[in-house]
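Researcher: Here's the sequence for the chain we discussed earlier.
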Amino acid sequence: MNKKFLSAVSAVLMLVSGMANAAEPNGEAALKFVRDVTTEGIEQIINANVSQAEKDKRFAKLFNEALDLDFIGQFVLGRNWRTATPEQRKEFISVYRQLNISTWSKRFDEFKGKNFVFHGTSPSNSKGQIFVNSTVPMDQGEPAKVVWRVREKGGKMKIVDIIIENVSLAITARNEYTAFIKNNPGGVDALIANLKTKI
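Model: Thanks. This is the structure I predict for it:
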């Protein structure tokens, strides 16, 4: 076989390999990102001696900076995202953001006095994503397993899912919203109205 041909093939394979590696987020950087997020959440919000209103304000800031809620919102709306109007998409993302901030600002207090223990990262089948593995010691029983799905885009890390004890929050929401829309003639508008009542 022609040596020039072999050299060309090798060059292409090296280029493709390099692109594949570049598409996968840096494990150490992803782990540091999640560790910093949890540390800030525990020190500045959970353990802080401030009012609930101030905690909510700090949590909203942290939540908006750490999570890619536009990406998550599109995922949880599933195939209904494609048929939703631009106005419905915008309103859904806004309501979904408010609901999650309200819910998790209060639920985060469950981690008061606890620290996340990190156990490295695992590869993801999704391009540009990686899993960060952690556990949280509990008062009783085994430590709770918490896995963070991290997505890198434009050089920035964002959390796109939290998997607690093998239950994905994003997939759970997607299944719930898909079933709601399927069984409700109001469709996406009805879902948005329903989510507003939970904020």
